[in-house]
Known about the structure:
The structure holds 2 protein chains of 2 kinds.
Chain A: H1 2-41, H2 54-61
Chain B: H1 15-21, H2 24-40, H3 47-71, H4 73-76, H5 94-115, H6 118-139, H7 146-166, H8 171-194, H9 196-201, H10 207-210, H11 213-234, H12 242-264, H13 267-272, H14 276-302
Amino acid sequence: MAIRVEREIHRRRRSQNFGVAICLVLFIILMMALSFVKLTNSGPVEGYDHAPRPSLEEKALE
Amino acid sequence: MAYVTDHSKDYDPVFGDYIALLKPRVMSLVVFTAFVGLMAAPGTLHPIEIFCAVLFIALGAGASGSLNMWWDSDIDAIMHRTKTRPIPSGRTSRDAALGLGVALSGLSILMLGLASNWHAAGWLAFTIFFYAVVYTIWLKRMTPQNIVIGGAAGAFPPLIGWVAATGVVSIEAVLMFALIFMWTPPHFWTLALFMRSDYDDAKLPMLTVTHGRKSTRRHIMVYAVLQSTLAVVLAFTSIGGLIYLTIALICNSIVLRNAFLIWLRNEAEAELDDFKYERAFFKFSILYLFLHFLAILAEALLSPYGLGGW
């Protein structure tokens, strides 16, 4: 009987741990997918690392 | 020596108990109406963005459900309909419900802001505040209009979905809100008519108790007329069309007929047939809302093919 009580507790805690783990993994995958969609939909990205920026150069020429 | 621990007094919920705290049945309605709000809105979103917006709106609704269970655990233990919920049945503690509600509120608002826009996140924050604080903590036990106020919170998801897609509130979003807002009170008042002991036992100031059952029947009729008017007006906006109008006319004829029969009856007649029309009204009203939003969705999905809309 005593062993069953312990097993029941372990089963419940394992259920919680698995549930939280699955939620975290799904959340990470979702964030990666959302980041990918946001970045690919936001147009070309230009850095500021001392390189000429094409869009600014075109505006300056106009 | 065997190591034995009696955990019978401890709360050790399984994962499903935390899910139950989020009121998954209410969440399913939120998911559906928010999705329709997003799909009916002009413009196109990536499916991942739609999925995220609906998920975080649903999580916000779940968070407010958890906060509701935290505050109302005392009356949930009294009412037959709610006494198997995780807190009154002893599966989770009140603190766990409070913690889950607060954490998911913050997460859902933040993530909706990042995934969609901060205008939609603001509406979600207001909805959670309105349901958890204004309705649950403040007015639910004070006024017989509690159902009307609670209905407002449940009506926000399609509006939030619309704002998540467009960034602004428009007349279509307000009308979708108004339809659910007007639908909620008669839905729950008919439930109160044939589940009388539950609300009486919990000493909730339901309209049936404070103003009498005859007055409740009159209120159901008035709200059914307002709800039907709004439902038909919605057909002539940019999200309506012939499919929606047909469904609205059929469904609202049934609702008005049932409401009229409920209004004409007295308690003796209702008890004779075990609240036949009240039960019919309640059952049909669930289908009613589903069909209206399904029709709006159909209009949105068919319009690129020249079949939906006017």
